[in-house]
Design a protein that fits this description.
By secondary structure, the chain is of the alpha/beta class. It has 14 helices and 20 strands. The strands form 5 sheets. It has a 7-stranded mixed sheet, sandwiched between helices. A 6-stranded mixed sheet has the order 7-6-5-8-9-19, with helices on both faces. Strands 3-4-20 form a 3-stranded antiparallel sheet.
């Protein structure tokens, strides 16, 4: 009888696929469950260590990330192909996230109320769930694990993180930093794929997921059936709405950055551009020109905006999406080593085309005409997703009242669709999100449950 070899987790450099950053065996389902149990055993001590200890630990993580910022940015460039300037910004934001949540352990965890009648005391108190199971994608290999883990730890939970296989080296390096300042079992990275992810969802006490819609829905179903809290951030098919009174050059610059930045590999990237009325022709020319001017190349070059896609399969998906369509910019694949494609804008996209119903995770967008603002809102809402919409206009009334009908979780006015404020709630509508919001104070509420206490004096009747 032979025993099958464990599956291997392999991470390649998208700019130089011949370079393998990491190849390790996947731990499997049983080890995943054991890891959760170790984290569960460590959780009471982490909580009872007190607010000062948790605050100091999170602050120390922030300091260590700052100290290692050059190394971490270079690792993100090599492992996930993130352009260097964006990688540096992500590392800086990651440190800021840990520093922000380092103050959270001192926040109030409840409220005191008067009784309806007679002596006694009523109060509410928020308590951690236990073990937070986190499943994260590869595109923000430090920031997304951090904006999940930091509030979970601040609230007194322990964490088991399963990163996307493509970002395993980044996750393991983050774990080295965190594990230097927290007790054993409090923060663990579990490399793996679907087997480990399924086991984690089946064992953790609270689950947070970011990734594809299909997997996110499955995660939500399993966690909900178990009765544990779950949040899932999934796909986006985000629109940029441009009104005739907009600053067209500025709008084109913002939208081009949102289409092509990091090769469009962000859930907040713009994939549909809706030009209202007379905005169509000038925007058509300005946006095509802006996309042609986007620097495409080696992500290790600080001037690069659009680097490689994460895999050969991902590049093939983008090429399939533009096939047979009229391209105003791009529509070509580079012959350089690595998984590159040109930022692409297409027009005259037929109804029902995949670009108008599916998220294609790459630097491609469709230009769509709208008769007026109401028509633009209907087009924006016509897809299964509702994460973020950017709106470009000089009309404050249109921005504040005419856009109330947009069915998205976030609206960004005269700004790119990309960009996240980590101290505010993050999330979408429809198939983009399931469950409570991430980030800000909303995260602290998600990683805790509220209990109501009634205290009556002994002998009271």
């Amino acid at each position: 009888m032979t025993t099958a070899a464990p599956l291997a987790i392999t991470s390649h450099n998208p700019a130089d696929p011949a370079e393998v950053l990491l190849r390790i065996p996947a731990p499997g389902a049983f080890e995943t469950v054991d890891t959760v149990e170790h984290a569960r055993a460590a959780q009471p001590g982490w909580l009872l260590g007190g607010a000062a200890a948790r605050s100091a630990a999170l602050g120390a993580v922030a300091d260590a990330i700052d100290a290692a910022r050059v190394e971490l940015a270079e690792l993100a460039v090599r492992e996930v192909g993130k352009p260097l300037t964006e990688a540096r910004a992500e590392v800086a934001r990651t440190a800021a996230i840990w520093r922000y949540y380092a103050q959270a352990p001192y926040e109030p965890v409840g409220a005191v109320h008067e009784t309806a009648a007679g002596p006694g005391l009523l109060f509410s108190r928020r308590r951690p769930h236990g073990v937070a199971g986190l499943i994260t994608p590869w595109n923000f290999p430090f920031a997304i694990p951090s904006w999940k883990a930091a509030p979970a730890l601040a609230a007194g939970n322990t964490v088991v993180l399963k990163p996307a296989p493509e970002a395993t080296a980044c996750a393991l390096r983050l774990a080295e930093i965190v594990q230097q300042v927290v007790p054993a079992g409090v923060f663990t990275v579990l490399p793996g794929g679907p087997t480990e992810g399924n086991a984690l969802v089946s064992a953790a006490d609270v689950v947070s997921f970011t990734g594809s819609t299909a997997v996110g829905k499955a995660v939500a179903r399993v966690a909900t059936a178990r009765g544990v809290p779950v949040q899932a951030e999934m796909g986006g098919l985000n629109a940029a709405v441009v009104l005739p009174d907009a600053d067209i050059e500025q709008a084109a610059a913002h939208i081009a950055a949102s289409i092509a930045g990091y090769a469009g590999q962000k859930c907040t990237a713009t994939s549909r551009v809706i030009a209202v009325g007379a905005a169509l022709e000038p925007l058509r020319d300005a946006l095509a020109a802006a996309l042609r001017d986007v620097p495409v190349g080696d992500p290790a070059d600080a001037a690069t905006v659009c680097g490689p896609l994460i895999s050969e399969h991902a590049r093939g998906q983008v090429g399939d999406a533009w096939h047979g369509l009229s391209a105003l910019a791009g529509g070509t694949v580079s012959d350089r080593p690595g998984w590159y494609t040109a930022p692409t804008l297409v027009e005259k996209v037929p109804a029902g085309h995949r670009l108008l119903r599916e998220e294609v995770f790459g630097p491609i967008a469709a230009l769509l005409p709208a008769d007026d603002l109401a028509h633009a809102v209907r087009i924006s809402n016509s897809v299964p997703y509702g994460l973020v919409t950017s709106v470009h206009t000089a009309d404050l009334n249109a921005a504040l009242s005419g856009l109330d009908g947009l069915d998205t979780g976030m609206i960004r006015i005269n700004a790119p669709s990309t960009g996240v404020d980590f101290h505010l709630p993050f999330g979408g509508a429809k198939a983009s999100s399931h469950g409570p919001r991430e980030q800000g104070r909303a995260a602290l509420e998600f990683y805790t449950s509220s209990r109501t206490y009634t205290l009556s004096p002994a002998g009271a009747t």
